[in-house]
Write a structure and sequence with these properties.
This protein is an alpha/beta fold. It has a single domain, classed as DHBP synthase. Helix content is 33%, strand content 16%. It has helices at 19-31, 51-61, 75-81, 86-97, 121-125, 141-153, 178-182, 220-231; strands spanning 36-39, 44-48, 70-72, 103-108, 128-129, 132-137, 158-161, 186-187, 205-207, 212-215. Strands 1, 2, 3, 4, 5, 6, 7, 8, 9 and 10 form a 10-stranded mixed β-sheet that branches. Helix 1 crosses helix 6 (141-153). The model has no long low-confidence stretch (mean pLDDT 95).
Length: 237
């Protein structure tokens, strides 16, 4: 059945948008040293892949360099970069393919992987913490299209939520602070985020080395219930 003429796009149903083309447009801007704001199911995000652009993001967000950004990845990127045991890999696969839930993995990563060879040292330094890298997975059509394209092209992208630090995640373009919005060279607007909430939460972050919860965010209860039911795993808060 075709969508109603009055239907509005949302991040999980971006009707009227060519998401694959938008992903190509975003990656072209990022490759040129620009900044992008894109819609995720969990929140709007601000992305870059060069030192100058990453520095600008930290500046407009008023974000401390003690709070690293994360990589926007797909399952293949995580498989290439993250060092995880068989159970952790099975959980990653199941959360994506069976539960279809958004989540961020913290895990040790392969610093010498070719995928990271052309990432500027500053960008990698501000997107990792010690031996670990935080990678967002399965956060909606735009995220997945961009993550898969960037992985295929060997051009990783990094970023965080499109809001000033400690102000809460933003779920529409209109809610993003003007200073943050003005920093972007391209803005993709898919309407309201699927997982918008009154608490200003973004993605749930799990340390896959020990399954400690780094941040209980969007869909945490569903993630927790799925891991308990499917793997007998209790998430450690």
């Amino acid at each position: 059945m075709p969508p109603s003429p009055d239907a509005q796009p949302t991040t999980d149903n971006p009707i009227g948008h060519d998401v694959e083309q938008e992903a190509r447009d975003v990656l072209e801007v990022l490759d040129g040293g620009g900044i992008a704001i894109i819609p995720l199911n969990v929140a709007y995000a601000i992305l870059a892949r060069t030192e100058g652009a990453i520095r600008r993001i930290f500046e407009v967000k008023k974000r401390s360099y003690d709070k690293p950004s994360g990589m926007f990845g797909c399952a293949a990127a995580s498989a290439d970069l993250h060092i995880m045991d068989d159970e952790a890999q099975a959980i990653r696969k199941a959360l994506i393919e069976e539960a279809d839930l958004p989540f961020s993995i913290v895990a040790d990563y392969r610093k010498d992987h070719p995928l990271l060879a052309k990432v500027e040292p500053f960008v990698l330094e501000t997107s990792t913490k010690g031996p670990t890298m935080d990678m967002l997975l399965n956060a909606g059509p735009m995220h997945n299209a961009l993550a898969e394209l960037s992985h295929a092209q060997g051009t990783p992208v990094f970023g965080s939520s499109a809001n000033q630090s400690l102000s809460g995640s933003k779920y529409t373009v209109q809610d993003i602070e003007p200073e943050v919005l003005a920093a972007a060279d391209i803005v993709i607007d898919h309407g309201r985020c699927r997982d918008a909430n009154d608490a200003g939460l973004s993605s749930t972050i799990i340390d896959f080395r020990n399954f400690n919860v780094v941040r209980a965010g969007c869909r945490f209860d569903q993630i927790s219930a799925f891991l308990k039911d499917r793997f007998g795993r209790d998430l450690a808060a």
